[in-house]
Specification:
Blueprint lengths: L13 H24 L16 H8 L7 E3 L5 H6 L4 H8 L33 H15 L5 E6 L6 H13 L3 E7 L2 E2 L2 E2 H4 L5 H6 L5 E5 L3 H16 L5 E6 L19 H8 L2 H9 L6 H24 L17
Parallel strand pairs: 1-2, 2-3, 3-7, 6-7
Antiparallel strand pairs: 4-5
């Protein structure tokens, strides 16, 4: 996956849509393969899969350039891939290998690639928006029209750090876009219980910025909403909020028994809320055939196979690397 030196504007061409599908399919197969590989015991640490939310990451990042920033969450693989991070480097990082994007020291929840404008996944719920607002200040000061995106879940929407970041973004009028992926659960707690107003969109608007809710299972809906947010922010009008209503097909973390979910809930959502199925159903209207998508599917599976094979064989960090790239003195 690559990022673009300049933002893309204008209509969604056939080529752009094929690229969007490739990114969504890559996220899905990357996560589905991790779901299998984790069970072998060869991947260290906690892993939180993004399957089901692909249209949000890709719909948000599709028009971004390299100098546009994103800050992710503990569920960050999809954001990384959507922003153009190398899947081979990501897989090695998740396996804890020395050639990983963060030299094998970050793992699943801490992948970053500054060269792609990906400022890092974050294991702290609500830890990303303050970083994103800081990056948005830099965007405003550069005056080049770049923007900063803070991804977060419905659980992060209740954190004080997030409230402070949103308020500061409005006060300083910076180009920050707060993207809430409302998948219905803050870890194991239902959003319908934990969000007192039951509406993250209207609560965000109360800070003094435009806010929209969209169907997070529909790439086209997310993309259209993001285009309005980008136009607002790139024009210097301050921050924007998007609440994307979505779901996750797996638990909060790998191994989560999901006793808080209704029987057959996920099975029903895989039928009605699968963004890849929805995209495929609409693809014909844009000159994209089933054969086009099948060709991409095959290419993606080969790329994932190669990434896993290389990660398995790659070397871990050496003992001498223990004290490098960390603060050992001030």
């Amino acid at each position: 996956m690559t990022t673009r030196p300049t933002p893309i504007t204008g209509p969604l061409t056939r080529e752009r849509l094929l690229d969007a599908y490739r990114r969504m399919k890559t996220i899905r197969e990357f996560e589905e393969r991790l779901h299998v590989e984790i069970q072998t015991g060869s991947i260290p640490g906690f892993t939180h899969l993004y399957s089901g939310q692909e249209a949000v990451a890709v719909g948000v990042c599709e028009s971004l350039a390299t100098n546009d920033y994103i800050v992710s969450t503990h569920r960050g693989h999809g954001h990384c891939i959507a922003k153009g991070c190398d899947i081979g480097g990501m897989m090695k990082e998740i396996y804890g290998r020395a050639d990983g994007l963060c030299k094998g020291k970050g793992g699943s929840m801490h992948i970053a690639d500054f060269s792609k404008g990906m400022l890092g996944a974050n294991a702290i719920v609500g830890g990303g928006p303050p970083i994103a607002v800081g990056a948005a200040i830099a965007c405003r000061n550069r005056g080049d029209g770049s923007v900063s995106i803070a991804f977060g879940g419905d659980g992060s929407a209740n954190q004080g750090t997030v409230f402070e970041a949103m308020n500061l973004a409005v006060v300083l009028k910076v180009p920050a876009i707060f993207v809430y992926e409302n998948n219905g659960y803050a870890e194991h707690t239902g959003a319908s219980y934990a969000v007192g107003s039951n509406n993250i969109t209207t609560r965000s608007a109360a800070f003094g910025m435009p806010a929209e809710r969209c169907d997070g299972a529909d790439f086209f809906a997310v993309h259209a909403t993001m285009e309005r947010a980008l136009a607002h922010c790139r024009a210097g009008h301050g921050p924007y909020t998007i609440e994307a209503m979505t779901t996750r097909f797996y638990g909060h973390f790998e191994g989560d028994p999901q006793l808080y979910r209704a029987k057959d809930e996920v099975r029903a959502q895989r039928e009605s809320m699968d963004c890849l199925k929805r995209f495929a159903a609409d693809a014909g209207q844009h000159g994209i055939s089933p054969a086009d998508l099948e060709s991409i599917d095959s290419e993606v599976l080969l790329a994932i196979d190669a990434a896993v094979s290389e990660a398995r064989e790659a070397a871990p960090p050496a003992e001498a690397d223990l004290l490098t790239d960390v603060y050992v003195s001030y």
